[in-house]
Design a protein that fits this description.
Elements: H1 22-31, H2 41-53, H3 58-72, H4 85-90, H5 99-107, H6 114-131, H7 137-157, H8 161-173, H9 180-197, H10 201-218, H11 224-235, H12 247-256, E1 263-270, E2 282-289, E3 296-305, E4 323-328, E5 333-338, H13 339-357, E6 369-370, E7 375-393, E8 397-414
Parallel strand pairs: 3-7
Antiparallel strand pairs: 1-2, 1-6, 2-3, 4-5, 7-8
Helix pairs in contact: 3-5, 3-7, 6-7, 7-12, 8-9, 10-11
Length: 415
């Protein structure tokens, strides 16, 4: 995906939390020549609350470990397993984080809630984008690994977003009340218990017919049912999640709305075998949708625009000429474009991808075509390749445009 709609994650200066341990609590009591029994009721409650915050249920640990192992087993993970001390000094990294540290915190029960775990993982990617060149191996590997994380994270939480939003509101609104910790812990345990017991299985089963119908309409060139269900799912996300939303998160959501059997994310293409690597030689189609019962193969190119770049205009219409300010990770500067330009660039990009797909399988890196082991391509009668650019603005509005169809003399089957 182009850098035009990518943003480095924001991190808080107070990323690290200070946790009161039993040892430090005991030391304070000894210095004051006090015992737990002699403490006032309010102080006893506070000490118990701090102590309880360090305890982790097996449900939370299993939830986080499941996602962590998905990252750990990825071939790109080795670059982020342990940070280099020299890099921290040379690049002046303020808040270093790596997978080794995350694993250690999991093993030592240091995560008290899901947000802490997510923040550490996202800090890894934030450091990756902030302190590495946009064309470097580490930077590109970080984008791939972040996409894996977002997909896995959304698979587990997409049906629980409203509950999670309620949990955060309870924690924020009741922070100063005596029962704030009890409410927070109760809500969090409820989310984790539902995950562990797969309560959402029934919700998913109710949703599957709708998803199947949207897919079936999509492959017969009717995108509207798919757009409607995408709107519904995006509307379930809390406003708090918009600050960290990006194209990777959008792609994870879109993938969750498609049958696993009939779509391939990040389809690898050789665009021009004569060009050097990093100069337009390769391309990656966001999502390639295979036809099951329909007549068309569908290509999707996804674009995401943050509301942050549009907020100065206070305009909710978001027209094509609406100016959009964004941070270019490649050039390390703030640039300005328009919604229309982002959409048109996406159309040009998608048309070039579809033309390459129509050529069939690439023989090697020096030719042009599809170069992806997940798909089998064979000669056949003519088939139709169609595509859509889907532009999402802050998870609050969806714009989409079709591109010109292309005839292909190949069939495409997921291996």
């Amino acid at each position: 995906m182009p850098v035009v709609t990518s943003f480095p994650k924001k991190t808080s200066k107070d990323q690290s939390a200070i946790i009161t341990t039993v040892t430090s609590l005991s030391k304070e009591m000894i210095e004051q020549n006090l015992t737990v029994a002699s403490l006032p009721k309010k102080k006893v409650k506070t000490s118990v609350e701090n102590f309880s915050n360090t305890l982790q249920s097996n449900k939370l640990i299993n939830f986080c470990y499941d996602i962590f192992h998905k990252l750990e087993n990825n071939p790109y993970a080795h670059l982020f397993y342990k940070y280099n001390e020299k890099d921290i000094i040379d690049k002046a990294i303020k808040h270093p984080m790596d997978l080794f540290t995350v694993n250690s915190k999991l093993e030592n029960d240091q995560y008290t809630n899901l947000e802490e775990f997510e923040n550490d993982i996202r800090l890894i990617f934030c450091n990756c984008y902030t302190y590495n060149d946009a064309k470097s191996e580490v930077y590109c590997s970080g984008e791939v690994l972040e996409s894996v994380f977002n997909k896995k994270w959304n698979e587990k939480l997409i049906f629980q977003t409203r509950r999670k939003g309620e949990l955060k509101r309870v924690r924020d609104n009741d922070a100063d009340t005596d029962n704030s910790f009890t409410k927070f812990q109760k809500k969090q345990n409820q989310i984790l218990e539902e995950y562990e017991n797969n309560v959402n299985h029934h919700i998913i089963n109710d949703t599957l017919p709708i998803i199947a119908s949207a897919y079936e309409n999509l492959v017969i060139d009717n995108i509207m049912p798919f757009i409607e269900i995408l709107k519904t799912f995006l509307s379930t996300r809390s406003r708090m999640s918009l600050s960290s939303a990006n194209e990777s998160m959008l792609q994870a959501i879109v993938e969750s709305l498609l049958p696993l059997k009939y779509h391939i994310p990040e389809l690898s293409l050789v665009m021009d075998g004569k060009k050097p690597k990093g100069s337009g030689r390769f391309g990656y189609l966001d999502i390639f949708i295979l036809k099951g019962t329909g007549d068309n193969y569908i290509s999707l190119e996804l674009k995401y625009i943050s509301l942050v770049g549009l907020i100065r205009n206070q305009n909710t219409k978001f027209g094509a000429n609406e100016p959009y300010t964004y941070w270019s990770k490649e050039h390390k500067t703030t640039n300005q474009t328009t919604i229309g330009e982002v959409l048109n660039n996406g159309i040009d990009q998608l048309e070039s991808y579809i033309n390459i797909i129509s050529k069939g399988k690439a023989v090697d890196y020096s030719s042009s075509g599809v170069y992806d082991e997940r798909i089998k391509i064979t000669k056949s009668d003519s088939n139709i390749l169609k595509g859509y650019v889907i532009l999402v603005i802050g998870f609050r509005r969806i714009l989409w445009r079709p591109v010109e169809e292309v005839i292909s003399n190949y069939t495409y089957i997921k291996v």
